[in-house]
Design a protein that fits this description.
Intradiol_dOase_C; alpha+beta; 4-stranded mixed beta sheet; 276 residues; 4-stranded antiparallel beta sheet; Protocatechuate 3,4-Dioxygenase, subunit A; 5 helices; ferric iron binding
Length: 276
Amino acid sequence: MPANPARPPSASRRRHLLAMGLGGAALATLSRTAPAAAQTPAAPLPLTAPTTEGPFYFDPGKVRQDITEGQPGVPLEVRFTVVDTAGRPLPGTRVDLWHCNAAGVYSGYAGQVDDHDRRVSTRGQTFLRGSQPAGADGVAVFQTIYPGWYVGRATHLHMKVIDGNRTMLTTQCFLPDALSEYLYTQLPAYRRRRVRQTLNSNDGIALRAGDTTLGAVREASGRYIATLTLVVDPAALPRSEAFPPGAPPGPPPDRGQMASLDGAARVAAIVPGTKL
């Protein structure tokens, strides 16, 4: 009867192989209990870059998915996935989201300036703010509107990742300029007297933060869906870029902008890979 090829070699058979100089390689081939090849550990994911909190954060104490509160604009679903550097989800972590409305104004603050240089107040209002716990897959989902813009900043969302009483990450999510340009020029809720001059390519905060804060947006039925993976180190001390002490509640100074962009120069600044 032929030998069972899955049966480990006998002691005499092992001595015979060793005597022939075949050694460990042959034994590994014949033995079911040979150790598996060593796995190369995957490289850790890069941490999401922190950014300034800005002057407009407060916690309204609203745990909710839909943060719209009737604000006009294009429906936007925001999906943040919170993971550690090994890609493991961090369920139960709290994600806070806040951003400006279609006119570039935040809720809850006086002293803001609208597109006609008028002072406006939204004290007591909580639109476009809320919190959600990350699910078992690490995902926190919000229903909101596509944000507008204000002088000195590219289009962005603000968010925090919080574990208990500890903030693990404060950062921003930057949205594609080409889509923003289309919405801002075609839809009445977003049209402005000024032409937007600060883009992802010349916003100082966006440039310092880099690729880990660039959101991906896709079209879905009746809405856009924006996604971003937030990679945090649960053991690290929280950090964020400092906002200038004593800064007024309004858009940051419009420093370092490109010269007025139009025509081919504007297309080159907005559409990645486009050259003059």
